[in-house]
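User: Um, what's this?
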Amino acid sequence: MVLLTVVKPFQYFLQPKLVKEPVPQQLESITNEILVPLVSVFHRLVDKALTTHEWGELEMEKTLHIISKCLYFSVKSHMPSALSPLLGSFCRDMIRILDSLSFDWSVTPSDGYLLRLKTGKRSLLLFGTLVSRHRKYSDKLVPEIVKCSMKIVKHSSNISKLGSLTERIISLAFDVISRVMEIGPGWRLLSPHFSLLLDSAIFPALALNERVHFLQVVICVPVFLVYCCADLFRLMVHHVFNDFSGKLLEDLRMIVGWGKCSSENWNLWVSNLQRAVDMKNEDEFSKDEIYDDYDKPSDEEWVKIETFARLVGCMYKVAVELFEGGYSTSNVYFYLLAELKVMLEKELEGADSDYFRCNAKWMLKRFDKYWDHMFLVLATASVLDPRFKMKYLEFYCSKNKVCDEASKAETVLDYLRSLYARYAASDICQKPICSVAKVDSKEEGENGDGGGEEDHDEIQDGEEDYDEEQGENEEDYDEELGEGEEDCEDDEEEEYDEEEDGEEKYDSDSSEEAEREARKTREKKTDACKDFAFFQEFLKFEGSAREFGEPELDCYLREPVMEWNKDFKALDWWREEGHKYPVLSRVSRDILSIPISRATSYYAYGMDRREPPAFVVSLEAEVANAMMCSKKWLRL
């Protein structure tokens, strides 16, 4: 942890404005005094580790992993002059580590081997950076890097049987190869391995592209992926929460007095840390002598706490409406996420420290990537909400400063018209709609879905994990955008090792009891949308009368929007209006039933990635659908 802290200044220069910008003197000093000696230590440890046939020396493997992280951060943007002559040494050591990896899916990896895999993953990330950014120093190493990467990608035939970390290593090896292809001698170096690349990467990619092309062009089905909203929130929160050490959290627990339990759900951390900030603002720690015996956070740590409380507090306001409303059909996501975007932008404008500004920018960057991917899905669902129709989308686009946003409203409307035309041309509107059984509000709240039963055939139904699509760590996401900020996956892998072993984990029964109490409190409070400034501005914006048109879709869009009602249920409304809009009601049922978040209620606030059991993933579609309809999945 000391090494990572010392190397941390490198993270502030991950995106230098000029390619030939000189390396800051501070980084040169860190390199000369610390990193250069670490290279020789790394070499000796690699020799020792590779002569050990068992994975028992955890401390040695952990040290290798930490040193590899330090070396990666040190070359991710700049190339320190003292480190460039040593590239060949530690790169060859990393190649030796990668060559030692086993891809035997039938063997359960030990803790030591998992650390070796993490070191290998970090090595591939470093290779990708060297090839794409530091060719001047790495050209002589590229043939060896290619040879090592090709040994790894040949195991891609078994990728479905491998663990997530091993699978990630194969993916990163492909990434290194793709970067090599972009340089001058890349094709010459890869030509001897082209047949292997055809079988392992190119042909599978072409097959997937042909499938998408067939759906999009031949059948005229627009295919897009759906990413989990709860995963987005989890990643955004985890990035800020990672900066809290176990000691800081323990000190806060003692002085604030929130109990012995530590929660894995970020909604409880928001309230606890906000309480600490309120106590500090009211100067309670200096007024009462009882706090003199406790360790209190430093000024720098208070900045981190206040940053978390402000940024994640904005997310929590929206998350309550998204995940705890009890009727989370897809139409409610657009206006709530738009509100979150506005909140974060305002917080960024009012940033009072570099730390706050950096974290706010990162969260907005992550949010904008999700927003761009999901805009068409969410906006289309919003248009099919009779409280909004096209008015909210047009209002949002008119307020957005980005010039491309203005055309998005037309894109959404064109998509909806084409979708309506395809439904109208088929016999789908002639099939009867199954009646939707009414459920009480409590049951809806517990299950968190208000959608229909059938899948929308315009949409690729396999809901993807947002984290997987961007890569399982922050570096992969950053490298898709260019060199970005520090990743958080490895922090997840190592988080809070320094916490006391005796600290109790959060008890699930007490969590559910606390959730029930919180639900009772929420039922008593007023509509939270009254506090959303951007949404209230929309309500004032909406108001003029519309003309009625002949076509079904035009008739729906030209009718006045409904008066705002927080408890409005879109699917019920479309079922009742089905006789008036026979085709459009079918479209609405399929769009509104798309599950935007795989987790609802209390489970949407988890900070740890939750993998479904293997037997659930392997279920046939009919069996999985039967389990969902019978609610048997709640017991899994």
Notes: Confidence is low (pLDDT under 50) at residues 434-510, 543-550. Residues 229-605 form one domain.
